[in-house]
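Chain A, query sequence.
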Amino acid sequence: TIFGTYILVTMKGTKVHAFMGYAYVASMLIVNITALMIYRLFGSFGIFHYAAIMSLINLSIGMYAVIKKPNKRWLITHLSWMFWSVFGLYMAFVSEVLTRIPSTPFFAMLGLATAIVAVVGGIIFSYYLRAWKRKIIY
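Chain A, predicted structure.
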């Protein structure tokens, strides 16, 4: 969470950004791969496994864009997918906190946390996206 937040709020394209970005990706790979090995909660493949797969997809597309630069919009693609990767981590964090409140319905709290963070993320993302598009010349 620290690496992701740092990357979101600081200057992009610097050596520090790249270092922190690779540290974020490495830590997220570890978290997601280990998440795919946990079956204690449901006894089988569950909702958190799907979230881990989505997180891996976000990371893959975001990093592919910056490494391969497949088209003129590669930077917007990288910034967008990595932004949502970090916000996915925030969704997981808030979900974890809310589902730990005693006597609360697990899936209701999970849905509430995800919805709230997704809406806030969408508002912030739209602001960032406009700013990125103003600064980037295609």
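The two ends are 31 Å apart (CA to CA). Residues 55 and 85 are 6 Å apart (CA to CA).
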